[in-house]
Amino acid sequence: MKHAFASTLFALSAATADVMAIDGISIGQPREHRGGSCDGQDRKLAELHTRIIAAEQQLSEARKSATADFDAWLDKLPEGPQLPSLDGETARFHFDTLDRNGTPNSVGGNPAKTVGTPVLVDGKEGRAVEFNGGDGFTFPGLAHFTRSDAFSFALWLRQARPTPRAVVLHRSRAHAGGGIRGYELLIEEGHVSFGLHHLPPADSLKVVTREKVSGWTHVAVTYDGSSRAGGLCIYLNGRAAKLEIIRDTLRNDITCSEHDLAIGHRSPDAGFKGGSADDFRIFTRELSALEVTVAAGLDDYTTAVQSIPTPTPAQRKALFDFYIATAHQPSLDARKALHAARDELRKLAGN
Ligand SMILES: [Ca+2]
Q: pTM for this one?
């Protein structure tokens, strides 16, 4: 599902490109002098693009060379598997208790802060929170992601009824018509969408599920930090959803220093009126598909481990992707280097 944009970038070296508008800056065209050397900045930009391409190739090579290590890792997995801990989890909200100040974060970080008067109702697991469209929570200090950061969100959702638009989760500066910058999870006529926006529609990426949701649904969003729609996945009840790409033109940053991550509401906008949420989790990495099934309460991991030494091809691929995402050190190192290069480019672009 990943876009192979490395070859495109590689073909457009700084020496040959007339105009290259990727990551918010153009290569090879005159730019305003800002007190430094334009040539020097162009050179630095070209170097970073080359570094990104090399880091992507390194990550790909690491994956290709992992088979023997993977087989050794499989042999060491214990029988009678324990569910894996999901690394990189910075927050988890069960919404089982609520007071005027907020609700606790069970992994020990910042609690959620109550906005308005959300109420607790029977949930997917214990209690859940129900919103009136103008209330919910904010999450101070959490999920301050840039477009270079990999991240994942997972939560149970239940909408009261399909509406044209319901803002479920967002960290953004304003609503869509007011100069939005940030990220957002919406339900639109029953379809789940996720967007990363600098200024839509020209500078934005957004995907939406072809499938509609109803009743309690486990929704997970994973993102790889590539600034490409192909780096976003939405899972419904633990399964990757077929997505329609609405936009794939994000070139500048999505950070929004003014507001906290929020659930249930955005003003002025259509909040998640009558909707409920349970077991909201935030991760600072891209979960693998097998990890998403764990978050969704499915038994895929257990059955895959029990299938060893004769897993089906699908089980072997799921275990391999999980291994690459969590345990294969060359892949972990390559992913870290790729993030560093992408983030340096983002900062050079001034956003
Ligand atoms: Ca709960």
A: 0.88
